[in-house]
Amino acid sequence: MAKSKGTKTLVRDLALLLDETNISEIEIEEDGLRIRVARNAGGAYVAAPVAAPVAAPVAAPVAAAEVAVEKDIKNAVKSPMVGTAYLAPEPGADNFVSVGDKIKAGQTLVIVEAMKVMNPITAPNSGTVTEILVTDGEPIEFDQALIIIE
Q1: Per the confidence metrics, is the pTM higher than 0.90?
Q2: Digit-coded pLDDT (tens) for 20-69
Q3: 140 neighbors 79 (Cβ within 8 angstroms)
Q4: Which domain holds residue 77?
Q5: How far apart are the C-alpha atoms of 79 and 70, rounded to whole Å?
Q6: CA atoms within 13 A on the CB side of 62
Q7: Are residues 144 and 94 in the same domain?
Q8: Cα–Cα distance, 86 to 62 (Å, whole number)
Q9: Dihedral sign, CA of 134, 75, 28, 23?
Q10: Is the pLDDT of residue 1 over 50?
Q11: I need a surface site. Which of 65, 83, 110, 121 has the fewest CB within 10 A?
Q12: For 43-52, which contacts have Cβ atoms below 8 Å and span 24 or more sequence positions?
């Protein structure tokens, strides 16, 4: 019974957070319980508990492959926010950077639009762009790898 009351309070708090931040959806996981609160087109809220995934044993070859993928994105520039990635300053313009470009620290790599604000994402260090991991206009998540700089 106490957990139910705590869940209701959490859903209420998440709904308030949606209003304060003007975002349309939020999902959290806490103590094995995952809750998603979303605002539909009419402004009403929908809260749905989602079953947390059950951890399954992973075979060694798969684990080795995952480590290799993580190693490949070691030098990735990651998004500091949820939003939409734009590779150029405006539609039809050249991209900020292309694969193979030599860049300098502080140079704009992409723009992430969040809540109608354009946020430039800059290079943390000088190097060469080896891979661009997003497409123009793609929705992105917090901490998602955007570009790899070697």
Answers
A1: no
A2: 777 777 777 766 777 777 766 454 445 545 554 555 554 444 444 444 34
A3: yes
A4: 73-149
A5: 16
A6: 4
A7: yes
A8: 33
A9: negative
A10: no
A11: 65
A12: 45/15, 45/18, 47/11, 47/14, 47/15, 49/7
